[in-house]
Design a protein that fits this description.
Blueprint: H1 14-31, H2 40-51, H3 66-74, H4 82-93, E1 99-103, E2 109-114, H5 116-123, H6 135-138, H7 142-149, E3 153-155, E4 169-176, E5 183-191, H8 198-216, E6 224-227, E7 235-238, E8 241-244, H9 247-258, H10 265-273, H11 280-294, E9 298-299, E10 304-305, E11 309-311, H12 312-321, H13 325-331, H14 343-363, H15 366-373, H16 382-391, H17 400-412
Parallel strand pairs: 6-11
Antiparallel strand pairs: 1-2, 1-5, 3-4, 4-5, 6-7, 7-8, 9-10
Length: 438
């Protein structure tokens, strides 16, 4: 079976592949259709890039200036793994043909190393530290697509969504926290057509595994961790073993983690299904299937978790509680189980988003406000855009773009009359009530 994450099969002609994929790319930009020889992983990425309105030409945006970059990356967990990256990929990064890059979960490049000539060439497309290379901002590319798919991947030449990047090829692998299983970022090898070889993908995968093993050293206890922010299927990590839960099981574990004292069947049913009538056997069947997956973690009478579970929801709330808004924003990977319609999850999701937004509005930090406004959940948040306008100096050139966006959103919300942009907004993300406690 052909490995779908490899850019080319053995013996393929890179020149012919570039030609055919470039034609397919032009067709996709023209009418949205995509067909072989475009790989499924690339087709999916092109669609995500188009849905996010990523530019098909132009440079990736630079989000972290020098001062912010150094402060952020010095405290980043992946700083501990840089000796491993340099040991395993350093010779490639200095050979005059490759670059070694490491990014955070948002796709912001924290380290870009290699021969000065290659780095200068890459600078023309803003492949530089501080630039954001997730799919939303840079289109299909190996580090961005590895983050989106949470899988090692190669992107070859014309498979890149942005035409400015199509002379390059790259291979990248995601990196996870060995204790919690949460995404830390990605390691990437960028160069010419030769990066599309199977050897390159195997190399970055092996480097990622070695880095994760290095990060494991000094971790006294792995415990139980749950990641449910920004993902419909939660990731449960028990003593280092990763388990991806189904959507209903994700809701159940999330709710039980918030109720360590336990819930009766009726209480859990209300949080999952609301007031509509639901036969008790339905919930019992879901819990039985979950017990087969999670083993002794799930107890009954009342339903509860047998061990303390650390959640990414807790991490955001703890940072907000001590006023660490930057740490909270870094930990906030998106809405809690965003597609869930379970009433208990919806209330938790709304309450956390409200707390996060309130902290950002109170902090009035332009960098934090801008970062939230660049997310799918913040791009149409009028109150955030108005706060950003108000936080910037009146004569600052950086004020014009958010000012235009705020005016556009006011018009879209029908708020065209009265009130200057920068005043408290009349339209905002809905306020949610706290979930019931039993």
């Amino acid at each position: 079976m052909v490995n779908p994450w490899l850019a080319m099969e053995a013996g393929a002609d890179p020149v012919e592949r570039t030609r055919t994929v470039r034609r397919a790319h032009a067709a996709f930009l023209a009418d949205g259709t995509v067909a072989p020889p475009v790989r499924q992983v690339v087709a999916d990425s092109w669609r995500r890039s188009a849905d996010a309105h990523a530019a098909a030409d132009g440079a990736a945006p630079i989000e972290l200036d020098e001062a912010a970059l150094h402060a952020y990356r010095d405290g980043h967990p992946l700083a501990r793994a840089m000796p491993v990256f340099r040991e395993l990929l350093g010779s490639f990064a200095q050979d005059g043909a490759h670059l070694l890059a490491v990014c955070d979960p948002q796709g912001r490049l924290l380290w870009v190393e290699g021969h000065p000539g290659v780095r200068r060439s890459a600078e023309r497309m803003n492949f530089v530290v501080g630039a954001r290379w997730d799919e939303r901002h840079a289109g299909t590319n190996a580090p961005g697509t590895a983050l989106a798919a949470e899988h090692a991947v190669q992107i070859f030449a014309a498979e890149h969504y942005n035409r400015q990047v199509q002379r390059w090829s790259c291979a990248a692998a995601p990196l996870h926290d060995p204790r919690t299983g949460r995404l830390l970022g990605a390691v990437d090898l960028t160069g010419g057509d030769h990066v599309a070889s199977p050897h390159s993908l195997a190399l970055v995968q092996a480097t990622a595994r070695a880095a994760e093993a290095h990060l494991t050293s000094g971790v006294p206890e792995l415990g139980v961790c749950l990641s449910a922010l920004g993902r419909d299927e939660a990731l449960l990590v028990m003593d280092g073993k990763r388990l991806r839960l189904g959507r209903r099981h994700s809701e159940i574990i999330t709710l039980l983690a918030r109720h360590p004292e336990g819930l009766t069947g009726d209480q859990l049913s209300v949080l999952l299904y609301g007031e509509r009538e639901r036969r008790p056997v339905t919930l019992r069947a879901e819990l039985s299937r979950l017990r087969q997956l999670a083993g002794t973690l799930l107890h009954s009478r009342p339903y509860r978790l047998s061990r303390s579970v650390e959640t990414d929801l807790d991490a955001v709330e703890e940072a907000l509680a001590v006023g660490e808004v930057r740490s909270a924003l870094n930990a906030y990977r998106g809405p809690l189980l965003p597609s869930s319609e379970a009433p208990g999850v919806q209330r938790l999701r709304g309450a956390l988003a409200d707390r996060m937004r309130s902290a950002l509005l109170s902090a009035r930090d332009p960098g934090l406000l801008r970062e939230w406004s660049r997310t799918p959940w913040g791009e149409d948040d009028l109150e955030i855009w108005e706060a950003l306008v108000d936080a910037l100096p009146e004569r600052s050139p950086a004020r014009s773009a958010p000012l235009a966006t705020a005016h556009r959103l006011r018009a879209a919300y029908g708020l065209t009359g009265g009130g200057a942009v920068g005043a408290p907004a009349a339209a905002r993300v809905a306020t949610f009530t706290q979930p019931p406690r039993f």
